[in-house]
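Q: Structure tokens for this one, please.
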Amino acid sequence: MARIALVTCRPGPDVAVDRDLPVLAEAVREAGAEAVVVCWDDPDADWSGFDLAVIRSTWDYSWRSAEFVAWAERCGADTRLANPASVVRWSTDKRYLGDLAAAGVPVVPTRYVGAGDPLDLPGDHEYVVKPTSGAGSRYVARYTPGRREEALRHLARMHEEGLTAMVQPYLSSVDTAGERALQFFGGRFLHAIRKGAVLEPGTRYDERKVAHPGLTAWEPSPAELAVAERALAAVPGAPELLYARVDLVDADDGSPCVMELELVEPNLFLSLHPDSVPVVAEEIVKAAG
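A: Here is the predicted structure, written as tokens:
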């Protein structure tokens, strides 16, 4: 019987609860393997004692990104890690959007602002400021040109913490069409969800936000599937991905583009797609073999 670690994080006031985790653990057991839920930073964890470690809800990693990547390297040396440490390292920094754009994948236009870089913020349209290493809408805010001073304080706070900022146009389609998240598992499309706008006008960057408002199941269009598949094909080194989530929004011309490529710890939203639970469990057990 394969022994599989489903990797999560310690509970905390700023960490969401992974309600899918106990359901998935039970499904893995029903699929014929031993499933153990383990915190990634548990000092007593013996990763070599598992046939496979699957990163699931390590939703505190963005506060400790360097530490988390170092853990992934160690864990990947002791057992098979899904997704691999090289993928974790690449995708914990959203500067990967530049790699996707260079490969011809349509992405949300993005400018990166590090400490000491020119602070020429947009003066004629709404924009979003967020860190290149972040999750759950932490340190993310939407600005109008008239809120420049507040945006500059936001940038300064991130730079004080050693973070690089991203500046993107706020696409108005998010307020109407929302964001769509396409999930892939075992190399195949699994299911999709749609969520409403996360960023309300005027919400400060340091206020807690609802990361997934208005969740509904979604049937992706052929164009959305095509863009998602192009994004996955552009991941450097063509690694084997057990799981992936591609977050899409509509560009100004109505065509889908990539907002985020989540290859570390995507919420699978299994509660909206209960039929996917045994599929995911079977793919996890297969990967352990």
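A few notes: The first strand starts at residue 3 and ends at 8. The chain has a mean pLDDT of 94.
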